[in-house]
Amino acid sequence: MSVNGAPGKGPQGDLTPEERAALEDRSSDLGRKLREARQTEHGQRPEAKGRTGRSEAMGRAMKLSSELVGGVVVGGAIGWYLDSWLHTKPWLFILFFLIGTAAGMRNLVVGAMQQKTPSTPPASGGADKDK
Amino acid sequence: MASPIEQFNIKTLIPLDFAGIDASFTNASAFMVGAVVLASGFMVVAMRERALVPGRMQSMAEMAYEFVASTVRDNVGEEGMKFFPLVFSLFMFVLLCNLLGMVPGSFTVTSQLVVTAALALLVIGIVIIYGLWQHGLGFLKLFVPDVPPVLLPLMIPIEIVSFLARPLTLSVRLFANMLAGHIALKIFAGFVASLLAAGAWGIIAPLPLLLTTALTALEVLVAVLQAYVFAVLTSVYLSDAVHGGHH
Fold it and tell me: What is the pTM of this model?
């Protein structure tokens, strides 16, 4: 489409060249926005990411703060149960308490590592996540 | 002043008994039904128009959809979208239960460990069953990290315990946040009443009132955040089931 078409031609004949140029600008602008929207359709929208960044960070903090405790409690509980079952008090409790602490640490570290690179491209399907 | 934990009492509304199992319809059941009815009712009503340019209700519903969809896509990938209905239902249920609990005088379903534990066990159960079904025994590679073989006897128990800790942290996080938040609210609100009843001390009664107001805002934030965290972690765990142990 040519911008400098003479007035009086075609269905938009009564537009001045300036108006027509403005129309062209707007339609190409719209086209660009549509293309951008299509590209980000299956990914994270950048502007939405910035807005939710703060509450997302709080969510992460809440998530991480309970990881360590969870590992210790589960490890301790397993050890306690095995001890009373096998009559090996207190050795398995001590062992599993330590394992549980390590597991909690592991969850904490893995969780923190994941969050450093939250925007993995969806195509890779999170295959590069975790370890 | 009423006890701060009185609000968590389960009251039987309709007594039911199946072969010796107490299956009464309680206030907890009522609020769960309420959350489900509200969530599905909202989605149905909001999407009735199906307008190309969404109205207020429709854009809220679409925001909820896109929010959960991008969470699932980010954490599991495109193939994880088959779990989208599960994650979306869990998110809406937890969100509505949390927000219903913020209505004064209502009951907070998610402050009951048995409810959050059931939700967490559902998630972990699906992860284990789907993982074993998709990858067979190869799913157990999840417990074998990439470390020198010498370290494996140490690392495998750690990985197993850390996997077992997931349902616990998932359920306790939600339950503890809701429980603690509601107890704190009740206690500070109770201070206002007891200060007003204490004669001259009534002059500082607005202080706990201000704090209660601030806490209420915080609790609404926590209610939404916890639903979000639940949805994110569900997707993270489902990612293990979809992609198996090999990363």
Answer: 0.78
